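Q: Hi! Curious about what NB-ARC domain-containing protein looks like structurally. Here's the sequence.
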Amino acid sequence: MAHAIKAIREKLDDISKDKDTFHLEVVHSTEEDEALHSRETDSCPPTIVVGREDDKKNIIHLLLLLNSNSEVNNISFVPIVGMGGLGKTTLAQLVFDDDEVTAHFDIKAWVYVSQSFDVKAILGRMLRSIDRQNQAGPELDDLQAQLREKIQGKRFLFVLDDVWEERVVRWEILGKYLTVGAIGSKVLVTTRSSKSRTSTSIVESYHLKGLSEEESWNLLLTKALPRKIPQNPYVEEVGREILRKYGGVPLAVNTIAGMLMSSKNPEIDWPSFLHKGLSEEENPTISALKLSFSHLPSHMKHCFAYCKLYQKGYEFHVKSLVQCWVAQGYIESEIKGLDCFIMLWWRSFFQEVEMDELGNMLTCKMHDLMHDLADSVAGDKIIRSLSSTALINIPSKTRHLAIYEDDDNDAGEEADAAVADELENASKVRTLVCHKPLSKQEFEIVICKFIRLRVLIVFEDRSDASTLLHFVGKLKHLRYLVIHCHGMCKRKTCVALIETKYL
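A: Let's find out. The predicted structure is below.
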């Protein structure tokens, strides 16, 4: 026993020497945790918007214009143009929810588009946004006929959020389905590209600018120091110098504020932040996001990176996301998982959080730049495949895998075989989210090879879900299971498996 204790002491001495050799700092997280938890008494972070009052008025003015020479076939487009993180979506939401705008238009609909400008998918989302109960068929003729019926002779406002499409012909195809609306109908578009020309029916492109230094400072104070203004002029000087590095980008300012709000001693902590970790070669906004990520506790880094599994624009169900974190062992319990979610929300890693009347968090989204950051930090350990045919050479170190339905619906057995071959080599996977029905061969591989699987979410178009559940029982490490079958979700099994982890 004495020899063992001596060996342990020698090992600790070596670790201590290495700390000095590599100039490592001892970081105590207790103060940060206390500071963050002190803000939980406010229940949920408020939606803070600073410096966009004039922009909102200008956009509303463009939307309410009725007699415009640029209106063609009763409809006109109003693009909000600006770089990522400027708050284009936030501004569009403020306008969309404005009482004057609501009273002016007969119909309003919000559609998230992103990089895939699929006209058929956009029409379907428009219909579902107008009528949640809509059951339009998958064919383009059915979709356009039902949409025309809904908007015929009515003045509508459609918001197309986060559009990347620059080809005029694609816009003209979409526009021809909307011409039956009343005069004054508008389509508000948020885009990063000034080349997104929506044919000749543009009223005017609105180029969104960054916040002024004073607006950025007010936003930082509102979030980082909500109950006090720094008395020390040096702290204000350092704070303003930090903000100058990020060009008035609200997402960057919010992210920085989320990191600085945990500081109990701004006189020491803020100057340290100013001189640490900024890359002059990178986009300043990306630098701010990376620096904020680097300051997260280890478990929060894992939770954030896990979100790479989902596509841009995905609406997360907060409870399900937290349960997946728990199943992976990142967090001990759902209560602590919700704490972690709130911390990440405060730091702007999540946004657009929807709550019920009791204040329970239901859904949320992630900014595209944050999603890009998750892609970057997760690396090959988390793979999101957008089609079966793109699923090639899964690295052996991959631990979490998401497979989406192939755009080519006729890929058939060849695609299934390709997926099966790749799944054969991914035996160390701990998460499988499969948005395409699994073939019998694929499912057998999951059961036989994926012995470390902790989270399994599958979408099945077959009716024998009970047989599927029988085989799932062989996955001894499984902690979270969801099987979607013809719109039905077997969530009782999921909850039971989660609860066994807590026993």
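A: A fun detail: The first strand starts at residue 75 and ends at 81.
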